[in-house]
Structures are given as C-alpha cells and as structure tokens.
Amino acid sequence: MAESSRYGEQVNSSARHGGLLTDKYELTMLAAALRDGTAHRSTTFELFARRLPEGRRYGVVAGTDRFLAALPAFGFDDNALSLLSEFLDPETLRYLGEFRFRGDIEGYPEGELYFAGSPVLAVRGSFAECIVLETLALSIFNHDTAIASAAARMVSAADGRPLIEMGSRRTHEQAAVAAARAAYLAGFAGTSNLEAHRHFGVPVLGTSAHAFTLLHTGADGSGELAAFRAQVAAQGAGTTLLVDTYDVATGVANAVEAAGPGLGAVRIDSGELAVLAHQVREQLDRLGATGTKIVVSGDLDEFALAALRAAPVDSYGVGTALVTGSGAPTAGFVYKLVEVDGAAVRKRSAAKASPGGRKQALRVSRPSGTVTEEVVHPAGHPPTVDGTARPLTVPMVRGGDVVVATGAAALAAARDRVASGLGSLPWEGLKLAHGEPAIPTRLLPS
C-alpha cells in the first residue's frame, strides 16, 4: 500500500516493516566498519537483562516467533535506499541493498522464564549483519516480554479463572496486536482484538459496550431492557450482558428478564467489584440464573486480581495495566557485543558492565521438579551440577535459515512452556510483593 512519507513522496508501506525499523546509528556504525575493514569480522551479540524490572521475581521470554518471522523481510528496497542516501555512502548502500542475514541465532525458547543475566538470545555472524539487527531484536523482545511477564503475574493472581485481554484502545494499534499475542502466550484465554485473531489465531471474545445500552435510551431514561433483548436476539441467551450502565441490581434483573435463567454471563465494569460480585451472585441465584457467570473488568492489574480471589467472579477482562506492562513497560533487555573473532570482549562502564564471551545456560531442579538455580556458563562447556540440569539454549537459525517450529505450533508450545515454568518455581517465587528473584543466577567465568 502506498502512502506519503514526511518527505512527500509515495512510498511502499511494507518498507516500514523491513530494514528501516532500526536506529540511524546502527547504519552509521556499519558505514564506518565497511570503510575500515572491520565489518566482516566474526562476532557474537547477546540479548539479556542486567536486572529484572523493579519488584519482579521472574520474566517470561516473548517475541521470539515475531523476531524470526521478521528476519526474511528485514531488507532495504529502493525507496529505503533512496532515503538512506541522504547520509550513507555508495558502498554502504550497495551492502544494504543486498542484505540478508546469513548467520546463526540461538537462545531461550519462547515462553521460557528468564532472570537477570540470562543469555536470552545470541546472534552470531559478521559485525555488519549482526549490528543492523540490534534495534529490531530489542524493540520486539522488550515489548513482548514486558507484556508476557505482566500477563503471567496476572494469570497467577487469577488462580485458574480465565482472563480476557482487552487493551487495544490503550496502546498503539500495532502494539495492541503483539500485546494480545504475548498475553495469550502467557496464559490469557483470549483477546478482543480481531487482528490478533486473524494473524496469530488468538481466540477472540467480546459482546457489547455501554454505548449499545445508551443507544436504546427512551424519553424516560429507560431502554436497558430493550438493549438487552436486542443483544440476546442477535447473539443468543449465552451472550454476556453489561449490567452497570445505570443501576447494577436493575441491570441484573433486566438481563435475566431478557435472556432467561440460561443467560451466559453478566459483566460489571465499575464500582466496588468485590462487593458488587457478591450482590450480583446472590441476585442471580434468587432469579434462578444459577449457571450465569460473572465477568468483571475496569482498570484491573495483578494486585486487583489477587484482591478479588474471594469474590464469586468467574473471569476477568484486563486492558490498560496489561498493555503497558503493569508498571514495567519494557523488559530492560540490552544487546551487547560479547565476542570478536572467537575472543571474549566485555563492556566495563560503571553500573553497565557486561560479561564477555558467548554463553549458554542450564536450569537446575530438585527431583520434585522445583527449580533451584540458573547456571550461565561458557558456550559449549556445561558444568556438572547437583540436581537435574535442563539446557535452556536451543538453535533457532543456522546459516540464515530458521530451524525451529514457528506459527501456531510454536505459540501453543510457548503457552505450555509458560505454564510449566510457573509450576516449577518455588512457592515464594510467585509472590506479587517485591523481593528477590524466584531463583538465583550463577554466572561461571569464561
């Protein structure tokens, strides 16, 4: 699709989803490296977090599949090269015009838990081909991992009750699609976002908003019953009716009158949710709607979900807190050069030092399956440990070709991996309160 750029010409919008999804300094570094002959030195870059976000005890890796899917499209068409010619020399433009990543990538599978220092991704290849992927990798992993990590905390707090992602109106339109996928990956039941359903197969859910009830308002201020009858006529008695546009008790009575005792669910979106849920449950039961479920929504986060555990709530809708990472909008990942021509290199800046050398990791567990520590070790040299050790690092790309499952199968496997990982943590690792990471990380020297 063609659209106008800020320079006025018509450009192919697909180019925006390729090589231009990067920062300028990646390409100015590339130009300098091509000029002085260092561009083709063999390198390894690692993506990791120096620390978990404040108050978090674990994180959930997400974005792997989206990153792998982006690799084949990461290039520079004529329109992109024309833009870049404003500041790049002809040699660099020729290189970018022929760019295709031909290196190797390994890392933690999507849905795996991670901790401070975990080598979540290792990108190996020439400096030239690795450096241009930095911004792409960080933007995808930092966003998706932040959402999945928040979602996993919410899933734990919900204690087995389904969660619906409904935050599309609280974030960028494309971020909303990625957020819906990340939430589903972490254990949410579905999303309100249709594009996430189309693109990733995330189950889609949703019925009605307050506007539909208000649309039916009569001259006397009534009309709720008419709105409910219209919705039931269109969607059947199994639908969910929003009962808090006016008075909740009246709304519940109207909902049961419109749909009968077989009404699927009622939703409450405001007020003292715990108190209202108890009142609504009692009223539904008195009206014979004993099987009607209660859905609550309205600025929920993991702490609000935990506070509602004793309330007779059957499922939750979560929006703003989820798509903004619930206080941690980025995972804090960095992408650092750790190896040049097989030799370890390291950054030593104050408070931002990073260990050198390519690394892999093991997670150690007791016979019961409860994990006890993560061991980060020099690549190819796993240590002997006490307990059962599970390797975390797997090959993902070899010679530029993806070598792991992607798409729907990968998403299903990631959901299982998150659930298994959360189940393996010691009980204190699932606490929402601030504290130490769920397990310690032990870094072995290279």
From TrEMBL:
Question: Which superkingdom, per the lineage?
Answer: Bacteria
| Stretches the record annotates as Disordered | 349-390
Q: Which residues form the Nicotinate phosphoribosyltransferase N-terminal domain?
A: 20-142
Which reaction(s) are listed as its catalytic activity?
5-phospho-alpha-D-ribose 1-diphosphate + nicotinate + ATP + H2O = nicotinate beta-D-ribonucleotide + ADP + phosphate + diphosphate
Enumerate the spans annotated as Nicotinate/nicotinamide phosphoribosyltransferase domain.
Answer: 164-337
Q: Which GO molecular function terms does the record list? A: glycosyltransferase activity; nicotinate phosphoribosyltransferase activity
Instruction: Identify the pathway.
Output: Cofactor biosynthesis; NAD(+) biosynthesis; nicotinate D-ribonucleotide from nicotinate: step 1/1
Q: What are the protein's UniProt keywords?
A: Glycosyltransferase, Ligase, Phosphoprotein, Pyridine nucleotide biosynthesis, Transferase
EC number(s) per entry: 6.3.4.21
Write out the PTM section of this UniProt entry.
Transiently phosphorylated on a His residue during the reaction cycle. Phosphorylation strongly increases the affinity for substrates and increases the rate of nicotinate D-ribonucleotide production. Dephosphorylation regenerates the low-affinity form of the enzyme, leading to product release.
**Which Pfam family, any one of them, does this sequence belong to?**
NAPRTase
* Chain's role: Catalyzes the first step in the biosynthesis of NAD from nicotinic acid, the ATP-dependent synthesis of beta-nicotinate D-ribonucleotide from nicotinate and 5-phospho-D-ribose 1-phosphate.
Q: Which family does it belong to?
A: Belongs to the NAPRTase family.
- PANTHER family in alphabetical order: NICOTINATE PHOSPHORIBOSYLTRANSFERASE, NICOTINATE PHOSPHORIBOSYLTRANSFERASE PNCB1
Q: What name does the UniProt record give this protein? A: Nicotinate phosphoribosyltransferase
Organism equals [Mycobacterium] crassicus
Phylogenetic placement of the source organism: Bacteria, Bacillati, Actinomycetota, Actinomycetes, Mycobacteriales
